[in-house]
């Protein structure tokens, strides 16, 4: 239900769904205003009488209040205005009343002012001003009106003052002058208002006006109150009056621009060039990403906009030997550069005075914190301050975030240093070198310079960098620490507190390129909230990059550096990670194929798995590369049990997402681990999995058969009453064409699954029976079992897309082989749609071939040749031959080559 919107900051009123409500004459309207000021609170009858009539109410006051309430109830409804013995209550949410929104917004603005977030202060004050609609409580009467109106007017004045103060602080003093001048005329005595006006005038280069403002308020204070200006106003006057002459020195401190090899960052340069004077811009990003280079390049490009000079200070924010430059020391340097002959006690005030009215570019490089920078900000409308930092700093101005270069930009940087011809001769090597350097500008420049010095050829450098454990050694410069990638990373690492440093080291143990929050929590051995806070600290220092909600990654070179650091908890952290990964994958496997049975009996997922088939499939497609890397890490670190179990668990995930090549890589690692731990069931499972994966890759029929034979031999010696053993053995028999043995096993599986009310196993057994019977030429029974499997799957409500694909395909094939091609067409079209959705190329080839045959046999020639032509490149050798034969039959011509 929509609540009325209440208006008190202007004429009193209320609207419902945009329509004005009839609140009646001034009497009931005034009662409404008093209740709205205490919205959702009960106001006693005595308080209401006092608000409307004060100390001399009429004898009929209480009955009049009752009459007014009745009028309002008709306009608002019984649920909005509630009467009781205690009084009356306007039962509306506070946010429906403009006064409450106005007050809440102003409170938020004051909190932000305390946090020095002046840009946000301005935004909140603008929101508060938009609530104001004129003289408050217009149309209301009674003693309470004047008291409340005075309070709200004073509050609005506070909002206007705070807004103007924010404008001055963010470098827009000229925008504040008009409002401050009007406020000063309407309020000639408040000293803070005139002090702000003088500051804004002075910072806008209107010094004479600032002095006249002081003279005017000084006389008003003397005439009206008989007092002198207070301390704040006198200090503002002294600052304006002592504005110095233009310095004799024009600083030009920007380091050499080095434009010849500057590559990429065109978008960032455009962002910087769009920033007007009077701003503070923060350029942040990880170590070695080129923040200083960008700032210097931009400074040289716009130097003509700042004829009064360019200041540059390296604040050494991450220098662990001498420590960061103190603000006072930085001010001393800049004051000397501006021509100041002596260093006053209040350096910051002197610095701002020297910059007032001038156009100077200030570059504050390598800052560590906002506190280090704030005293150095050029608070003048003609000046621009650039701050570079490895940390994310909030200074109230625009932020330009730098990351690594794109692959094309990385190769262009190599070409600019090495020469275009050398890169053009071997573009593949150049591209691989860019990847090995993680597209980090510092690493690219070091590699290119070492090649250019003759120490390495391009391909030699690529070969050297292929070994991750040697990569940072190759990217080191013995005589230049600032050009040594490891040394640059070390500066950031040493600035971390102990808990952050531990977290950085443990995240470096993660084997994948993508880390989700649950994996981070497992590595750190903490809860999710603590993990999120800890990783957020590393994000602020650009040692970890966020890639999505609760998703992170370490730059490749930073990951190598983190893994180099001695971490006694590394092995325990890996064990926690493996348990987390196995449990999560196991839970997703159960979502994708419920009822399939457990790989791990005691797997407990530490976080809720994705709910529903589609969400689970999306999670699987997203996390599979990381899970595959986790299998490898488990094997490399001697956790063979985890490696085998996780590899077997990932079968359903790989199958559902059609990751055949990745699946085979996982199987190879898992098989070796299962053999080392003498785990026959998982050896058989993984051999069967390998057979299925090979069967989906064209041209690998022999490998598929060999894998199923190994699986069948092992499974024959295991307990066949185990559902996992029986199901795997049946699959092996079907794949190997051992129809008699497979029929017996599958019939037993079908009965057992039906008795256990396991629709997934029942459907699988029915489909495998249909396949086996089709191979024997028993089309009628094949169709019967195909329909049964489809019916069981549909009745179960499962959303398993691959199973539906198989169901549709098998029913269609059964119809086709039973001599009913027209009835097969719809089922095969459904199957093709599923395989296209899942990008299952083998399934697409089979379905297109069968669909083409069904259409051809049913006398529907439309699209048959197109289907067969599209299926050819996706098919294995035997099916390709059948496709060519059918295509020749359809076209009446020779088969295509």
TrEMBL record:
InterPro entries: AAA+_ATPase (IPR003593), AfsR-DnrI-RedD_regulator (IPR051677), BTAD (IPR005158), OmpR/PhoB-type_DNA-bd (IPR001867), P-loop_NTPase (IPR027417), Sig_transdc_resp-reg_C-effctor (IPR016032), TPR-like_helical_dom_sf (IPR011990), WH-like_DNA-bd_sf (IPR036388). Residues 18-90 form the OmpR/PhoB-type domain. Residues 97-241 form the Bacterial transcriptional activator domain. Signal peptide: none annotated. The keyword Transcription applies. GO terms for biological process: phosphorelay signal transduction system; regulation of DNA-templated transcription. One of its GO terms (molecular function) is ADP binding. The keyword Transcription applies. It holds the Pfam family TPR_12. CDD domains: BTAD. Keywords: DNA-binding, Transcription, Transcription regulation. Residues 277-424 form the AAA+ ATPase domain. Belongs to the AfsR/DnrI/RedD regulatory family. This is DNA-binding SARP family transcriptional activator.
């Amino acid at each position: 239900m929509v609540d009325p919107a209440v208006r008190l900051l202007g004429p009193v009123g209320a609207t419902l769904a945009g329509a004005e409500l009839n609140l009646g004459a001034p009497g009931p309207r005034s009662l409404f205003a008093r209740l709205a000021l205490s919205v959702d609170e009960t106001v006693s009858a005595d308080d209401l009488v006092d608000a409307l009539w004060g100390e001399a109410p009429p004898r009929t006051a209480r009955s009049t209040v009752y009459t007014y309430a009745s009028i309002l109830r008709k306009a608002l409804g019984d649920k909005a205005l509630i009467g009781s013995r205690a009084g009356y209550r306007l039962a509306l949410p506070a946010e429906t009343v403009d006064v409450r929104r106005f007050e809440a917004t102003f409170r938020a603005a004051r909190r932000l002012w305390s946090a020095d977030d002046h840009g946000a202060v301005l935004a909140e004050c603008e929101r508060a001003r938009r609530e104001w609609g004129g003289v408050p409580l217009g149309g209301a009467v009674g003693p309470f009106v004047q008291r409340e109106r005075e309070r709200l007017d004073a509050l609005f004045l506070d909002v206007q003052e705070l807004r103007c103060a924010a404008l001055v602080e963010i470098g827009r003093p000229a925008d504040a002058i008009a409002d401050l001048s009007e406020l000063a005329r309407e309020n000639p005595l408040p000293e803070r208002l005139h002090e702000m006006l003088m500051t804004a005038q002075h910072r806008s280069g209107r010094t004479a006006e600032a002095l006249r403002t002081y003279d005017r308020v000084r006389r008003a204070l003397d005439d009206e109150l008989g007092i002198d200006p207070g301390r704040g106003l006198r200090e503002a006057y002294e600052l304006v009056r002592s504005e110095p002459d233009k310095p004799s020195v024009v600083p030009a401190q920007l380091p050499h621009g080095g434009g010849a090899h500057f590559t990429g960052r065109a978008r960032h340069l455009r962002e910087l060039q769009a920033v007007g004077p009077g701003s503070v811009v923060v350029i942040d990003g990880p170590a070695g990403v080129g923040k200083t280079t960008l700032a210097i390049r931009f400074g040289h490009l716009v130097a003509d906009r700042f004829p009064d000079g360019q200041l540059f200070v390296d604040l050494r924010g991450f220098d662990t030997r001498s420590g960061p430059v103190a603000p006072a020391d930085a001010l001393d340097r800049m004051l000397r550069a501006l021509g100041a002959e002596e260093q006053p006690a209040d350096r910051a005030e002197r610095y701002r005075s020297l910059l007032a009215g001038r156009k100077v570019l200030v570059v504050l490089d390598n800052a560590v914190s906002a506190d280090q920078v704030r005293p150095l900000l050029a608070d003048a409308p003609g000046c621009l301050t650039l701050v570079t930092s490895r940390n994310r700093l909030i200074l109230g101005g625009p932020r330009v975030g730098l990351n690594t270069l794109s692959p094309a930009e990385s190769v262009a940087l190599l070409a600019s240093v090495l020469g275009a011809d050398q890169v053009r001769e071997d573009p593949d090597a150049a591209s691989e070198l860019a990847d090995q350097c993680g597209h980090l500008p510092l690493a690219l420049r070091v590699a290119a310079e070492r090649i250019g010095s003759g120490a390495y050829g391009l391909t030699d450098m690529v070969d050297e960098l292929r070994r991750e454990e040697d990569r940072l050694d190759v990217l080191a410069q013995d005589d230049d620490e600032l050009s040594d990638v490891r040394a640059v990373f070390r500066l950031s690492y040493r600035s971390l507190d102990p808990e952050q440093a531990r977290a950085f080291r443990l995240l470096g143990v993660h084997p994948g390129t993508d880390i989700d929050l649950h994996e981070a929590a497992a590595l750190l051995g903490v809860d999710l909230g603590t993990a999120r806070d800890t990783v957020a600290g590393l994000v602020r220092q650009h040692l970890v990059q966020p890639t999505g909600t609760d998703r992170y990654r370490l730059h490749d070179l930073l990951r190598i550096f983190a893994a180099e650091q001695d971490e006694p908890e590394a092995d325990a952290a890996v064990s926690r990670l493996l348990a987390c990964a196995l449990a999560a994958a196991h839970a997703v496997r159960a979502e994708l194929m419920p009822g399939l049975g457990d790989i791990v009996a005691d797997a407990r997922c530490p976080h809720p798995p994705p709910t529903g088939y589609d969400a689970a499939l999306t999670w699987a497609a997203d996390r599979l590369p990381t899970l595959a890397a986790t299998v490898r890490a488990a094997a490399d670190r001697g956790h063979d049990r985890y490696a085998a179990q996780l590899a077997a668990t990932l079968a359903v995930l790989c199958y559902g997402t059609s990751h055949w090549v990745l699946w085979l890589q996982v199987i190879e690692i898992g098989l070796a681990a299962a053999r080392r731990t003498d785990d026959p069931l998982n050896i058989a499972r993984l051999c069967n999995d390998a057979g299925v994966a090979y069967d989906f890759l064209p041209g690998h029929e022999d490998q598929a058969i060999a894998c199923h034979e190994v699986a069948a031999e092992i499974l024959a010696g295991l307990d066949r009453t185990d559902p996992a053993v029986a199901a795997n053995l049946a699959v092996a028999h079907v794949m190997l064409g051992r129809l008699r043995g497979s029929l017996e096993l599958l019939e037993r599986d079908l009965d057992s699954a039906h008795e256990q009310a396991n629709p997934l196993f029942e459907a699988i057994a029915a489909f495998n029976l249909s396949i086996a019977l089709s191979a024997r030429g028993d089309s009628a029974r094949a169709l019967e079992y195909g329909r049964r499997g489809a019916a069981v799957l549909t009745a179960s409500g499962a959303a398993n897309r691959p199973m539906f694909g198989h169901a549709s395909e098998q029913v269609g094939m059964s119809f086709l082989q039973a001599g009913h091609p027209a009835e097969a067409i719809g089922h095969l079209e459904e199957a093709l749609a599923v395989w296209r959705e899942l990008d299952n190329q083998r399934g697409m080839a089979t379905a297109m071939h069968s669909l083409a045959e069904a259409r051809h046999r049913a006398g529907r020639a439309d699209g048959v040749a197109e289907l067969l032509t599209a299926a050819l490149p996706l098919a294995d050798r035997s099916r390709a031959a059948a496709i060519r034969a059918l295509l020749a039959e359809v076209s009446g011509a020779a088969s295509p080559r």
